[in-house]
Amino acid sequence: MPFDLILRGGRVIDPSQKLDAVTDVAFAGGKVAAVGGALKADPGTEVRDVSQLIVTPGLIDLHTHVYWGGTSLGIDAEEFCRLSGVTTAVDTGSAGPGNFAGFRKHVIEPSEVRILAYLHVSHAGIFGFSHRIMVGESEELRLMNPIEAAKVADANRDVIVGIKVRVGLHSSGTSGVVPLDIALEVANEVGMPLMAHIDHPPPSYEEVLARLRPGDVLTHAFRPFPNTPATAQGTVKKAVLDARERGVLFDIGHGKGSFAFKTARAMLANGFYPDTISSDIHQLCIDGPAFDQVTTMSKFLCMGMELSDVIAASTVNAAMALRRPELGSLKPGCVGDATLVTVKQGQFDYEDVVGEHLIGDRKIVSEGVVIGGRWWHPN
């Protein structure tokens, strides 16, 4: 089959293949067709010189809110992804069983960007989240019907990848950890992983982790005090180590209130890296402090993570969490998504959610994306 597109001469970093080399990547029929030197172009092949760029598998942002117009926190997936190098945006609970059909018809299906979703166990998803109105949807247990949630999840397996629940003082209030138990019941019924949001206690970090199963995701994993994974002495809590040992995944989910440099430094100093890096992008953090996926990745690069590990946490690791091995890789036969970036040198001011600033010397900048084997909206 002739190639539709060749990215010529870029530095290809693909952690799924342990690949870091200057080479070509070719696409055909919407998939990765070949990776290798001096790939031959046919008369109709589009060839792009990317010799000054880094080519990675298409970035996956595991925590976004892209139900634009349907929820107050939703942002426009196509605009956001074009600028931030994301080819797969995973919406995490913006919609629940009662409004998922609208999310699917009006946002997911028309989108050129791939949108997958964790279905919120609460009937209307995250419906009251704005500058002026904050309603903890998980506090109202009458909005949670396991049968209804399981029915919707089962009927939309092509785009629903798991079940979402938010627990904590601000999201579940007096209901505490009960919404998590309801969400786990649904996840078990449909055979899907669960993503749990955690904020201020109650419940505690330990209470939430104790319930999570192998393959479940704890998002906001490097959040600030209170409910942090690190002790006051800067060590990793035993419950956190035990959870990782049994296969629980730890996701960043930066957002407006869920990432602190102090926590991240303590965890990284102990060799505890996040499984996945995500932005938790929404209307309240798109103008800072999260901004986007590549900014969140840049923070970890400036805190000492290797570039390949940062990329892995935004590609192959995220694909594994989604149970979608066709994503997050440039292996021939995989989905034809790629992200092109540069790493700028300089002095860059990064901020966490508690107002601490980090002056970093590097910044990952998106230079374009390939989606489904096509060069898409170059920046």
Automatic annotation (TrEMBL):
Pfam families: Amidohydro_1 (PF01979)
N6-carboxylysine PTM sites in chain numbering: K164
All copies of domain Amidohydrolase-related, residue ranges: 54-209, 263-343
Top-rank taxon: Bacteria
InterPro entries on file: Amidohydro-rel (IPR006680), Deacetylase_Atu3266-like (IPR020043), Metal-dep_hydrolase_composite (IPR011059), Metal_Hydrolase (IPR032466)
The organism's taxonomic lineage, starting at the top: Bacteria, Pseudomonadati, Pseudomonadota, Alphaproteobacteria, Hyphomicrobiales
Keywords of this entry: Hydrolase, Metal-binding, Zinc
GO function terms (MF aspect): deacetylase activity; hydrolase activity, acting on carbon-nitrogen (but not peptide) bonds; metal ion binding
Bilayer-crossing regions: none
Binding site residues for Zn(2+) 1: H63, H65, K164, D280
Positions of the record's site feature: Transition state stabilizer: R166
Protein name: Amidohydrolase/deacetylase family metallohydrolase
Signal sequence interval, chain numbering: none
Sites where the protein binds Zn(2+) 2: K164, H197, H220
